[in-house]
Design goal:
globular; 3 helices; mainly beta; about 400 residues; single chain; five-stranded mixed sheet; four-stranded antiparallel sheet
């Protein structure tokens, strides 16, 4: 592994970027830090019919570009359950896909779970916002199939009673859907033809959330994620609790690796994983909670630190551009940036903060990202405490940024 000081990050001006924030809702909220944070539970948000938090607070948690229809499919968090939208790039309007017609009152979030299968259908899964006191009331995360031609949407199954699905990834070649749940933290695989589900194992110890934001499949067809360990008779699992796992269907068993991601400034132990993404070169790229970008080699499973593409914490959103570059965002609390990494030349560039001059707004933090065939980046903003999350559009007069 390399230290962060070994790799330079070129900082570029963002005055060449065209940034626009598209607003599905335009509400603002007060009192989050002094009245709500660490005080409210799920019912405080979800049950009050006239509550602005229930109706208007949203996060854009996952995105999927559709170049055939010129649409960006959007998965949201919303306590009223209206969590699936289409953004029409031609009209620049949002359309609800009426998820409440099929969902349960606990289906309040599509986290990192919008994926195409080989036939062009879109698969999704509902994640958890409620606490464990509602475990027996909530039926469990739904596996959802959506036909983008007919706009038909259906819940195919709820594979685990009462347990919700934090993210999915689809292996189009093999017709397999992988998911990770919370809470507890399982990994499962669903055969999209037979609709048979197999639990592959546990990835969390209970001391901390072991999984990263999503799952990724490398060029070998191997699925990657993170897990957290526990040590018997000790009060803490230690500084190296967060580690990597992978699974290949030919092997049929999870391989729990004994190494993880580097920490900032070369400190001992392994960092908590944040974003994970299969890059344009077929390797797996992972961001850490400290904002580091790392590469996992599909062949020997080694981890290489690329660098820190921004000064702030978190690195969740990444996507591949048509220029064979990896794009992503690091930063939180109003300091989300855009970065670009060239795998062929090992070049990492900070392209600047995401800022809409017309609204005078900066992106709070970006959770997912998708890129259209013409090189336009769409980024989903989540967990904003003082206003609705926005869908951010980033483009350049020269095509890719």
């Amino acid at each position: 592994m390399s230290s962060t000081s070994d790799l330079s990050v070129q900082s570029l001006s963002n005055n060449l970027l065209h940034v626009r924030a598209h607003r599905l809702k335009d509400a603002r909220f007060n009192g989050f830090y002094d009245k709500i944070e660490h005080r409210w539970d799920y019912d405080d948000f979800a049950l009050e019919e006239n509550s602005s938090w229930r109706r208007n607070w949203i996060s854009f948690d996952c995105l999927l570009a559709d170049d055939v229809r010129n649409i960006v499919w959007c998965g949201l968090s919303n306590f009223a359950g209206d969590i699936f939208f289409a953004f029409d790039r031609n009209t620049e309007r949002f359309e609800s896909l009426n998820f409440p017609a099929v969902g349960d009152r606990y289906d309040a979030k599509l986290h990192r779970s919008l994926e195409y299968d080989a036939d062009g259908n879109i698969w999704a899964a509902t994640a958890l916002l409620h606490d464990v006191d509602r475990f027996l009331d909530a039926p469990g995360g739904a596996i959802v199939r959506f036909d983008p031609n007919s706009r038909d949407i259906e819940i195919v199954m709820r594979p685990l009673d009462h347990v919700y699905i934090q993210s999915i990834v689809v292996d189009k070649e093999r017709g397999l859907l992988y998911g990770q749940t919370f809470s507890p933290e399982y990994v499962f695989v669903l055969d999209l033809q037979t609709l048979k589900v197999k639990i592959l194992g546990l990835i969390g110890s209970g001391f901390a959330m072991g999984q990263s934001q999503s799952l990724a499949i490398d060029r070998r067809g191997t699925v990657w994620g993170t897990w957290s360990m526990i040590r018997a008779w000790l009060n803490s699992p230690g500084h190296d609790q967060f580690r990597l796992w992978n699974y290949h269907p030919d092997r049929g068993r999870i391989e729990f690796l004994n190494h993880g991601l580097p920490k900032l400034a070369g400190r001992n132990g392994y960092a908590h994983g944040d974003g994970i993404h299969a890059g344009p070169d077929g390797a797996v790229y992972m961001g850490t909670a400290e904002g580091l970008l790392c590469r996992i080699d599909p062949d020997d499973h080694s981890v290489r630190l690329i660098g820190k593409p921004g000064p702030n914490l978190r690195l969740a959103a990444m996507a591949n551009g048509p220029d064979k570059m990896l794009y992503g965002s690091a930063g939180r609390d109003g300091a989300a940036n855009l970065f670009r990494y060239d795998p062929a030349n090992d070049r990492l560039e900070d392209l600047g903060f995401i800022y809409d001059p017309e609204l005078n707004e900066r992106a709070f933090q970006l959770h997912d990202m998708t890129i259209t065939a013409d090189g336009t980046i769409y980024a989903g903003e989540n967990d904003v405490p003082h206003r609705c999350g926005y869908l951010w559009e980033i483009s350049s007069s020269n095509g890719m940024v």
